[in-house]
Amino acid sequence: MKPNKNVQHDQNQYSKEADELQNSVIREFVEDNTIDSRKEGKVDESTAKIPDEQNRLITYRHQHNK
Asked: According to DSSP H, which parts of the chain are helical?
């Protein structure tokens, strides 16, 4: 019975290591190939949820209606 437990333990260990490696590779790929959303910059009007001008007016209204 002991050899089976060692084999199963080794298989579990290899599986965990493979999972960690795959997670690491995916994380690096995503970090290298995606834009950092924390960087400030001009909003692209074509992809924005609401236009900058509308967003500015909403912000102004919230700040002045307290």
From this structure: 2-33, 52-64
